[in-house]
Model the fold of this input.
Amino acid sequence: MGDIILDVRNQKTAFVTARGMAQAVDGVSFTLERGRTLGVVGESGSGKSVLSRSIMRLLPSNALVPADSRVILNGRDLTRMTETELRRLRGPEVAIIFQDPMTSLNPVLTIGRQITEVLTFHMGLKRRAARDRAIELLRAVGLPQPDVRVDQYPHQLSGGMRQRVAIAIAIACEPDLLIADEPTTALDVTVQAEILDLLQRMVRDRNMAMILITHDMGVVAGRCDDVAVMYAGRIVEKAPVRDLFHHTRMPYTAALLASIPKITDPPHRKLDAIEGRPPDIINPPPGCPFAPRCLRADAGCDAEKPVLAGTSRHQWACLNPLGEEAPA
Amino acid sequence: MADVTSSTQRDATQRPEIDRNAIAIALHRRSRRFGLFFWIPMVWLIVVAVACIFAPFWGLPPADEIDWVYIQSPPVEGHPLGTDNLGRDLLSRIVWGGRVSLTVGFAAPFIGVGLGLILGLIAGYYRGWADEVIGILIDAWLAIPGLVILLLFSVVFGGSLFMVCVSLGLLFIPTAARITRAATLNYATREFVLAAKAMGASDIRILRKEVFPNIIWPLIAFVLIDIPIAIVVEGSLSFLGLSVKAPTPSWGGIIAEGREVLSTSPHIAMVPTVVMFLTVLSFNLVGDAIRRRLADVREGAI
Amino acid sequence: MRYLLYRLRRLAIVLGVVTFITFLLVNVLPGDVAYEMAGMDSSEEEVQAIREDLGLDRPVLLRYAEWVGGVFVGDWGTSYINQENVWEAITDRFPVSFELMLLAQIIALSLAIPAGVASAFRPNGRADRIIGSLAFASVSMPSFMTAILLIFIFALGFGWLPATGYEPISEGLWANLRPMILPALSLALVEWTVLMRTLRAEMIAVLQENYIALARAKGMSNMRILLVHALRPSSFSMITLLGLQVARLLGGTIIIEQIFGIPGVGRLLIHAVYTRDFIVIQGCVTFFALAFVTANFLVDIAYAWLDPRVRTGGAHG
Ligand SMILES: Nc1ncnc2c1ncn2[C@@H]1O[C@H](COP(=O)(O)OP(=O)(O)OP(=O)(O)O)[C@@H](O)[C@H]1O
Ligand SMILES: [Mg+2]
Done:
């Protein structure tokens, strides 16, 4: 066992809404070691972003987190910290890259300012030094002409360039944990691969840990060590990438895998989106949340909520997992 | 869609998890119900309205009757609020003045919104040069300070209550016309209107049946905002002596007269000031509560 | 460029309409200036003679054309009452009104910005509710009421500040500012609420933006997020409003100058209205409309300063 950076235990996050309580994250636990990348996959609305913000303790005021949820980063419990203590961690120990590079940079501040403020606040750099470091960071993330770009505003950059800037901001203080929340969803395909490669390289070079959130199983395949599949706020299957792909147990994971386009597919084949809709998280079904859409579901699935079980290496939450049929 | 606005989940963390759905819904509902901030002002408004509407029946001395025994006097027997510098009963003047303020307060917004509605409908429905001309007129209107328009009107057309209502109403035309025009533009190109047109419905009928019901709510909300504004502006105008003609009392006028003797008998200016302030504040609070309720009803949240 | 030309043409038309309507209105004044000049007990012939003397008997359109022609060469006419040159009368007094408006707007902004930021920080929180109630009270007090209250408290009560009067700047800065404080405050206490509410609403929306979430994730303090990251992108509507408010402020100065005896354009106008000196009325209204248009032009420039997307021109990618 390596050096554990992040330990999330029974994280639950709910939102108070006009219709009632929306349980967006419902009892998620996992650990993450230095140098490793955890892929988190799931459909839209499965609670991936809420999970990442719960880890950073950056939740809106209508969020409720029960007292027994724990997020332990580098051995310290974030749930017990004051806002000021948390602030000192955000940047040097944990950083995040958001989904949409078009909206995650401040339109009225220069690129340089947005990077240097992290450096002056957390690292105590002086203005000139911070500026030089910012240019260096921009060069490191592969932004052309960093010394010109540093004085430009976000709207003068393309989407891919902005995402590089966001990465530069995230790695500015060399965090131990980097959360990338769908960093490439808004970009076009060629840029996607470049950005993902860049992230992978940064994590490897700086020996960080990364949580890579995506709803694309294809992204996970080449770039993660472990995968956690989320559905309706829960982790429903978790395993090293290889095991997950080759010994899929949870029917939902199987459905996600089936939706990856294959090289062998005829062009313009329609993707197999999964039939049906995700459950309403305000009034969830009593049994397995995937049961209404599951081809393998039986009466038992509708009655009982499956819990995560299996080996410590490969876990799944399913009453009728794949690969356990009586041999035909 | 995780909106991160504030990071206080500290106290939330410690809250126990009792029947949470019910609490959440109840909390949301409660913030929308008519509370004390609606009912207290409402009661005040009703008191003022009853006092003003039935002014002749309270046995008050006439508002312009001079009591030579008590000139500029503090409250005494027979003059519960005292008298002004001409010996006129202050309470009576305030009650009669309130009739002017309330009349203008209700009439002006309706006149303005009515005219604005017509202009906005024409501009939004027919577009083209009608739209252009109305647009220019509205811009011109907005480029002159409202009070200056009123000054001009008051000298040109004199100080009858009717003219005050009309000229004040004119102030509300631009915004009402803009709201209507935007909404009309929006609805006039919708399918149901196009369908009605194709079936040969007349323009008037389309406007009345299809467009009008959709813009009436924003306009009612707008009237609610305008009532206190109208009262305030009438007050300013009568303070300058340019509202209804002299012996007729009005709140702004009483305050202006009281200002002359502010150092010796402050109550003459202060009492009508307080009454007017409370009334305007009440209209604001009540209007705001109703407006939020209307918005909720239309969103179907209740 | 095309759009700019369109805007300019439209502005010109608007100004034309404003002046023409005013001209029509003041020329149907029932008691015209000739009566006023002739005095109480003068005969109809004398009045008629004065009318002819002033050229008031000629068609309105012709006189309007003459007046417009005059304006273009800087001749705004002369007052019928005291023969003062209208342009000079206005430009002499305008600096006083301008100072009043500027002070009022500065006070209003310095109240509105902190209050707006504080209440946007936690909508429906305690600060928000207190500020909201104050704002409700404040809009319910027209400026003449505020003025009387302020005079009552600070001039008559404590005797700290003068109740009326004006000192030119040549008497010294403090001597000049002292009598301006209460008038400016009377105007500002009405105007700040609108600015505050606009800022609050826009800021609440901005605080939901992703870049604010990112600033939090960078570990920035709330203060820094509010003032450095959120304030500037939240102030666009407020800036637009500053321009539109000029019309209201101009209206407000009329009353305030009257109450505090400040020799500004507002008093000139009121006096002209009382004496039916229509050429002066005409001049003042035209000047107000011009001031309004100019203010809104300046607002467009302020926009460019605030928003780099406008300043650096054209978006990329
Ligand atoms: N502030 C909030 N208030 C109420 N509900 C919220 C809030 N933020 C998120 N949710 C709900 O939480 C659920 C999970 O949202 P989340 O953003 O985590 O999904 P996601 O897995 O990141 O989806 P996507 O792939 O679209 O980014 C959604 O149903 C969403 O509606
Ligand atoms: Mg997301």
Observations:
- Residues 33-301 of chain B form a domain with the MetI-like fold fold (CATH 1.10.3720.10).
- Chain B has twelve helices and no strands.
- The pocket of adenosine-5'-triphosphate (ligand 1) is lined by residues A 15, 17, 22, 24, 42, 44-50, 60, 62, 182, 215, 281; B 1-3 (CB under 6 Å).
- Residues 90-126 of chain B form the longest helix (37 residues).
